[in-house]
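Hi all, long-time lurker, first post. I run a small reading group and we've been trying to get comfortable going from sequence to structure in the token notation. Rather than ask abstract questions, I figured I'd post a concrete chain and ask someone more experienced to write out its structure so we can walk through it together at our next meeting. Sequence below, copied exactly:
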Amino acid sequence: MLTNEQEYVTIMTKKEELILDIQNLLNNYDNVHSTSINPDLLKFMDESTLISIIDTLLTQKENNKESDLAWLESFKKVK
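-- Answer (accepted) --
Happy to help. Here is the structure in token form:
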């Protein structure tokens, strides 16, 4: 069984991973300056909030991809 201190370290590690995932998603866009997130935000966000942010970013990325694909397909129709 983990002590309270070990649980805290484990939770912080998971939160840090989630924050890094968010930063990577944000920095994956072309022509966008690098984004970093202040680690102090960790203490204000729980894991479910961070996962929700990741989900939103992934959805937005997928929507942008579909939009870009539709735009590209429109050129095929012009020919």
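A couple of things your group might point at:
The chain has a mean pLDDT of 79.
Residues 39-79 form one domain.
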